[in-house]
Structures are given as C-alpha cells and as structure tokens.
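[recover] target loaded
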C-alpha cells in the first residue's frame, strides 16, 4: 500500500481535485443553464418579464430568436437572452 501511494499519490489527489470541481462548480452551472433555457423556451404571449436592464414588460409576440415586448406604451424587439426572469403574476 505504501508503494502504491508513493507511486500514484499525486494522480489520486489530481483525480479527487477534478471530481471536486466537477461536482461543486461545473455540474451546478450546467443545471442552472438548463433551467434558464427551459424558462426562456416556456415564455409565451402575455407573460410579464424582467430584462437585464431592470425594465418590466409584457410579451406581445414570440418569434424564433426574439420577443416583441411592451414597455409602457411602446413595443420593442428584444433578443431572448435579454430576459433576466419571468415575473409571477
């Protein structure tokens, strides 16, 4: 056993470090990204949203790569990635 640790101890620590980063950094970020994509794809006409600039608007039209959003009395095209979150009614 002592010879094993002497010869492969560095590799074992490196594998443990990689596993740590995967489970505590990479995997949660992938999960969060998946949830964000699902949220954006579930948005529909009439949903209230908050954009990254802090403006609250209502979706009036859904297109393939963008939304048409009403902010006050103006309708503005906005890319889907600009949505920060959906607001609860």
């Amino acid at each position: 056993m002592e010879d094993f640790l002497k010869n492969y101890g560095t590799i074992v620590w490196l594998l443990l470090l990689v596993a740590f980063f995967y489970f505590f950094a990479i995997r949660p970020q992938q999960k969060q990204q998946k949830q964000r994509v699902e949220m954006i794809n579930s948005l529909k006409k009439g949903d209230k949203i908050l954009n990254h600039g802090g403006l609250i608007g209502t979706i009036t039209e859904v297109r393939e790569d963008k939304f048409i959003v009403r902010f006050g009395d103006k309708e503005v095209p906005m890319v889907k990635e600009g949505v920060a979150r959906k607001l609860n009614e």
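[recover] notes: The chain has one helix and five strands.
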